[in-house]
TrEMBL record:
<dbReference type="GO" id="GO:0051301">
    <property type="term" value="P:cell division"/>
</dbReference>
<keyword id="KW-0560">Oxidoreductase</keyword>
<comment type="pathway">
    <text>Cell wall biogenesis; peptidoglycan biosynthesis.</text>
</comment>
<dbReference type="GO" id="GO:0008360">
    <property type="term" value="P:regulation of cell shape"/>
</dbReference>
<keyword id="KW-0573">Peptidoglycan synthesis</keyword>
<dbReference type="InterPro" id="IPR016169">
    <property type="entry name" value="FAD-bd_PCMH_sub2"/>
</dbReference>
<dbReference type="InterPro" id="IPR016167">
    <property type="entry name" value="FAD-bd_PCMH_sub1"/>
</dbReference>
<dbReference type="GO" id="GO:0071949">
    <property type="term" value="F:FAD binding"/>
</dbReference>
<dbReference type="Pfam" id="PF01565">
    <property type="entry name" value="FAD_binding_4"/>
</dbReference>
<dbReference type="InterPro" id="IPR016166">
    <property type="entry name" value="FAD-bd_PCMH"/>
</dbReference>
<protein>
    <recommendedName>
        <fullName>UDP-N-acetylmuramate dehydrogenase</fullName>
        <ecNumber>1.3.1.98</ecNumber>
    </recommendedName>
</protein>
<dbReference type="InterPro" id="IPR036318">
    <property type="entry name" value="FAD-bd_PCMH-like_sf"/>
</dbReference>
<dbReference type="GO" id="GO:0005829">
    <property type="term" value="C:cytosol"/>
</dbReference>
<dbReference type="GO" id="GO:0009252">
    <property type="term" value="P:peptidoglycan biosynthetic process"/>
</dbReference>
<feature type="domain" description="FAD-binding PCMH-type">
    <location>
        <begin position="14"/>
        <end position="185"/>
    </location>
</feature>
<keyword id="KW-0274">FAD</keyword>
<dbReference type="Pfam" id="PF02873">
    <property type="entry name" value="MurB_C"/>
</dbReference>
Amino acid sequence: MSPKSLSNFTTLHVGGPAQKLIRATTETELIAAIEEADSKSQPLLILGGGSNVLIGDDGFQGTVVLVETKGNSFEIDACSGGLLTVAAGEDWDQFVEFTIDKGLANLESLSGIPGTIGGAPIQNIGAYGHEVGEVIARLRTYDRTEKKIVTFTADQCDFTYRSSIFKKQPSRYVILDVTFHLRNGEMSLPVEYAELAKELGVAIGDRAPITAVRAAVLSLRGRKGMLLGQNIWSAGSFFTNPILSAIDAAKLPAEAPRWPQTNGDVKTSAAWLMEHAGVSRGDQLHGAQISPLHVLALTNSGSATALDLLELARSARAKVRDKFGIILEPEVRLIGVEL
């Protein structure tokens, strides 16, 4: 396999070659690589942990920059909590573990999510009722349009469910580092998800030790095959949970999951829709497979191409559309391919 094959740098182990591949280990190298590609009007792909991306079999005809920047600084105050600035290339879950070891709360439910610090704000990663946008104080970016470093406060990031200004304008901003504001505390935020409450043995709305919440989340994710290092090649959840109007949500079967939103809309479960539309764990199409552990994860069983995964995703999507009239949207970023 070519060292420039992008399958080497994605958790799906899928993707063709990069025309040019650069590993940026410092912020200076990262900005220089961006400026060089932009000065030559070359297509540019910024890649972090490769955990939320499906790259086409033809690869990427341009420059791919692997963000491998490291470093962090932090201040922890007995009253105000912790203010931590972390480089974009740092590993997300290692950072979560670090904060819990320091007695800082509010990231425990986001344990085990693969990827890097820089990738986390782009899709506003979330799990078990909480999102990273809740704890971001500010972040620094390189603005490719203005050709300068620009700092965003949290309220300027336009964080919504699995989205942000950085996802909406993917060709403009490259995240350099992120500053988090966490609280001191041994107890978690109130546990709002029934699945997590059951795992912890607490009632919905109760709090639990942050170490216990992390352990429970890792256990749940592990049983779903959603952790790296499990010999399961996937990009995590392939589709986002649909957010419906109250009128459309009322058309769902009574037993369908419903999570009311503050604006009156209702979020439902993509996994539930898939399972009740006839998508089954273990379904296989050539080298692509619906995970045997969780229907929402599409996996590479060892020989999958991007086309195999797309065909499997299209099949699952069509079943949900035909059964419920709902079109599932990909959570995975598609590069050089379309669903």
